[in-house]
């Protein structure tokens, strides 16, 4: 039996229980062949089978390469779907069996795979050469504390495409399975999967309604397991201003703009080195902006791939075009299959099997040129019409097309199909459809009533229901709420009709006024235990808020624009979506010239740019805002948000300036947020006694507000102020703050709470816990592109490395984190820097410090994660706890 460091191969037949129940004789014979194949493959590669599991084996190898070769050999000959997991590590052999953590790892890796798939851990991957591997990234496996790096073996004669791994990880990305079935184009999907993997930029082109989006979505779903950082759908149909395209991409990916960088550059920086597939959907109205964005992203990363959809090519560098044709037509064609599938969903009792019906379906699909959207619109009418009636009604619309249809552009066919569907609507249905075309990214019943100037919600709901039944509006029901949307082709047609009847400006103004007026209800929701719903509303309506702000600002409606900019900048800051902060910045000058009543509020919103690392700008806006507030004559800043002016000073390591300002705020209005922020600033300034005094009674007051943001800030302030005197109490308080922040959806306070827990772990010498927490917060900040904010956790990480006597990586981290500002945020940093400097000779320290200072954000984060792994190994080896 191999001993010491051993490579283990675990195998299992996928779906064996079902096979035994349905085909026991076949399974018995197949299992005998299966056993022979595995026995021969393992034996011929010097492996030792030490256990049979009924439908699989456990084998040990002295060589990782031999284990992989045995697995590949077996997979090529097995007729059953067998999943295989390989892991390498130290194990104890006893009585013909093995014991050790590595066996559990091999079993869990095997369980994460699918039939025909060979998976192995990062340890094994690091020990082999000349074997083609696909990295599937770090994954969480059941009963294993730390994520395990998983790789897939790729070899001739073996499949390479599998569903996503069955792991404990939340699935990265925002692509979700659709409820309707994917019909036809199976070969196109397979070819596109290979094309996307082979090229950096693929663009699906074709007329509206031909199925580009659905095809891209299906490709994304099938590639999910190949991109460890996820597949991300970025819907651009709602973006009307090319200048807003980078913001839309950043918002979809959760990336913050960085100081001195454009939004596009910030996105590109954040994506560098990431394994992501971006699906940019509906680019045709933003071609130049989309091409520029794509070039920026791909110019910064060779690991990101982009799949775009557009009616024409983007014109970007290295773009590969993939024309998407209509579905084939004729008896038994893909178009007919699609019609029958959708017909079965809307009219399940209609078989369409009679010769007359079959002929009508074939003719209908032929007349619709096999365009999927046109076919689906026609199928939706089966609720109230027969297929022959639908065909005959189409004749009225298409009569002039007969004879010359083959030379007709397909978009004209679709246009007539959409027009035919709209012509069948009642007056109320047509009016609601056209007016709702002003929405970007969906709407709810209240919003629909607003743009139609209707006070009859039930009447509007009846009309919406009718449009849903006719497949012109889509209803999405999640979390007890219903939101409506339209396919972009339908929305564009309705928008043209709205413009033709001369009411477009009226509707857009009503749309903007509605979202400005939402401030009252949304912020009341925010100032309640249901705060998370306010964040959800903001995220769901960001595209509408963008459109409403832009329309108001362009029309000179400062009242509406300022209202939208203020409340969305605060919600954006708290959810780490920075775009609306830029709206507040944009309005500062026009509002100052007009002495607009909301000027003070706009300065507060603009000062939140600290979250994007623009600390100098944030402090400048804070100073001007403080002067405006002190001068009087402007609307007060509600909900205690005036205290948020101080945040830039705190991030810049100027807590004393923050405390001075916050004392002035409290003197004017002693709001709980200002009191909590004062305690935090005092703790940051190492004024522990004053911090505890300021935090006294905060928890009780915060409880009475029933506002999760106030409660989390109060908990965090109380925890920070008791770090030195009652660390156990502080830890319990910080844990509660983190749970509440996560539950409410407040990402900003979540990050603060994690850093608080990490700091407690650092000062109490719990290095292992500190490493885990700091890794979490580094992921949070780096994934959102909040690069300036990573200096805090990197500073604490340097302190941990110093505690572990890992002085060289500590010096590198301090070199990066200390520039361009001094490390005054954490009291622990100063002594640690002095100790590291003393532990290394001066020239070595300076060399390492300069090395860290010269690194990019991506390089320093990669360096940090590499050394976190090394530090964990060091702790395990030294039993350092």
Short description:
This protein has 881 residues and is of the alpha/beta class. It has 40 helices and 15 strands.
Question: What can you see in these coordinates?
Answer:
By secondary structure, the protein is α/β, with parallel strands linked by helices. It has 6 domains: 4-153, Nucleotide cyclase, GGDEF domain (Alpha-Beta Plaits, 2-Layer Sandwich); 186-323, 3-Layer(aba) Sandwich (Rossmann fold), CATH 3.40.50; 334-423; 428-502, Winged helix-like DNA-binding domain superfamily/Winged helix DNA-binding domain (Arc Repressor Mutant, subunit A, Orthogonal Bundle), CATH 1.10.10.10; 512-652, Serine Threonine Protein Phosphatase 5, Tetratricopeptide repeat (Alpha Horseshoe), CATH 1.25.40; 766-878, no CATH class. It is 57% helix and 10% strand. Strands 1, 2, 3, 4, 5, 6, 7 and 8 form an 8-stranded mixed β-sheet that branches. The protein has a 5-stranded parallel β-sheet with strand order 10-11-12-9-13, with helices on both faces. A hairpin with an 8-residue loop joins strand 7 and strand 8 (148-153). It starts with a strand and ends with a helix. Residues 399-409 have low confidence and may be disordered.
């Amino acid at each position: 039996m191999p001993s010491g460091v051993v490579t283990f191969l675990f195998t299992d037949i996928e779906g064996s229980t079902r096979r035994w129940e349905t085909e026991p004789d076949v399974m018995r014979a197949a299992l005998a062949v299966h056993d022979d194949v595995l026995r021969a493959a393992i034996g011929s590669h010097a492996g030792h089978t030490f256990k049979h599991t009924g439908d699989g084996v456990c084998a040990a190898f002295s060589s990782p390469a031999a284990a992989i070769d045995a697995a590949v050999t077996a997979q090529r000959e097995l007729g059953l779907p067998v999943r295989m997991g390989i892991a390498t590590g130290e194990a104890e052999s006893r009585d013909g069996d093995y014991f050790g953590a590595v066996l559990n790892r091999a079993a869990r890796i095997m369980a994460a795979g699918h039939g025909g798939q060979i998976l192995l851990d990062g340890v094994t991957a690091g020990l082999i050469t000349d074997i083609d591997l696909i990295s599937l990234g770090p994954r969480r496996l059941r009963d294993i504390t730390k994520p395990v790096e998983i790789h897939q073996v790729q070899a001739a004669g073996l499949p390479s495409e599998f569903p996503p791994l069955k792991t404990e990880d939340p699935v990265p990305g925002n692509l979700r399975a659709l409820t309707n079935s994917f019909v036809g184009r199976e070969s196109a999907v397979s070819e596109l999967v290979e094309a996307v993997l082979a090229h950096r930029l693929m663009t699906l082109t074709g007329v509206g309604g031909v199925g580009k989006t659905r095809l891209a979505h299906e490709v994304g779903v099938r590639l999910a397991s190949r991109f460890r950082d996820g597949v991300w759908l970025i819907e651009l149909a709602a973006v009307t201003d090319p200048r807003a395209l980078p913001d839309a991409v950043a918002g979809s990916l959760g990336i913050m703009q960085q100081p001195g960088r454009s939004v596009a550059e910030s996105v590109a920086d954040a994506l560098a080195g990431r394994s992501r597939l971006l699906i940019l959907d509906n680019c045709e109205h933003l071609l130049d902006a989309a091409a520029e964005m794509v070039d920026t992203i791909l110019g910064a990363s060779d690991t990101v791939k982009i799949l775009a959809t557009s009616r024409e090519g983007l014109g970007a560098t290295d773009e590969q075009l993939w024309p998407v044709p209509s579905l084939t037509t004729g008896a038994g064609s893909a178009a007919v299959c699609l019609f029958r599938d959708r017909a079965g969903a809307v009219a399940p009792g209609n078989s369409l099997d009679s010769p007359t019906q079959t002929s009508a379906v074939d003719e209908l699909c032929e007349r619709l040129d096999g365009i999927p959207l046109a076919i689906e619109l026609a199928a939706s009418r089966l609720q109230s019409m027969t297929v022959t009636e639908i065909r005959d009604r189409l004749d009225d619309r298409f009569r002039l097309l007969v004879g010359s249809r083959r030379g007709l552009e397909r978009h004209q066919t679709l246009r007539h199909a959409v027009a035919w569907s709209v012509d069948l609507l009642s007056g109320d249905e047509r009016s609601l459809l056209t007016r709702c075309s002003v929405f970007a990214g969906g709407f709810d019943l209240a919003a629909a009533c607003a743009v139609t100037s209707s006070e009859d919600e039930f009447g509007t709901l009846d009309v919406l229901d009718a449009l849903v039944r006719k497949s012109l509006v889509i209803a999405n029901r999640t979390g007890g709420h219903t939101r409506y949307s339209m396919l972009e082709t339908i929305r564009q047609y309705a928008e043209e009709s709205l413009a033709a009847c001369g009411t477009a400006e009226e509707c857009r103004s009503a749309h903007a006024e509605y979202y400005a007026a939402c401030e009252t209800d949304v912020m009341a929701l925010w100032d309640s235990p249901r705060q998370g719903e306010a964040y959800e509303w903001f995220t769901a309506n960001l595209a509408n808020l963008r459109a409403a702000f832009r329309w108001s600002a362009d029309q000179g409606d400062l009242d509406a624009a300022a209202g939208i900019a203020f409340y969305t900048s605060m919600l954006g800051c708290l959810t780490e979506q920075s775009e609306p902060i830029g709206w507040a910045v944009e309005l500062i000058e026009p509002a100052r010239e007009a002495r607009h009543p909301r000027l003070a509020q706009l300065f507060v919103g603009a000062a939140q740019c600290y979250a994007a690392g623009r600390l100098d700008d944030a402090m400048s806006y804070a100073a001007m805002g403080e002067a405006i507030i002190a001068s009087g004559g402007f609307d007060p800043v509600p909900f205690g948000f005036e205290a948020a002016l101080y945040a830039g000073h705190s991030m810049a390591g100027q807590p004393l300036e923050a405390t001075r300002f916050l004392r002035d705020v409290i003197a004017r209005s002693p709001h709980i947020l200002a009191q909590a922020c004062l305690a935090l600033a005092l703790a940051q300034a190492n004024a522990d006694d004053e911090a505890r005094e300021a935090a006294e009674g905060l928890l009780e007051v915060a409880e009475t507000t029933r506002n999760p943001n106030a409660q989390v800030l109060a908990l965090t302030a109380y925890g920070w102020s008791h770090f030195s005197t009652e660390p156990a109490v502080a830890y319990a308080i910080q844990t509660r703050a983190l749970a509440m922040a996560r539950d409410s959806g407040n990402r900003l306070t979540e990050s603060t709470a994690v850093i608080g827990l990490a700091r407690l772990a650092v000062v109490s010498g719990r290095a292992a816990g500190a490493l885990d927490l700091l890794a979490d917060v580094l992921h949070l900040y780096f994934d959102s592109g909040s690069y300036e904010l990573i200096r805090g956790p990197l500073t604490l990480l340097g302190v941990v490395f110093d505690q572990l006597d890992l002085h060289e990586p500590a010096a590198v981290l301090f070199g990066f984190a200390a520039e361009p500002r001094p490390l005054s945020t954490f009291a622990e940093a100063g002594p640690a820097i002095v100790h590291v400097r003393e532990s290394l000779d001066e020239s070595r320290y300076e060399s390492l410090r300069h090395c860290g200072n010269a690194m990019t954000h991506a390089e320093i984060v990669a360096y940090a994660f590499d050394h976190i792994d090394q530090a964990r190994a060091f702790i395990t080896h030294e039993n350092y706890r």
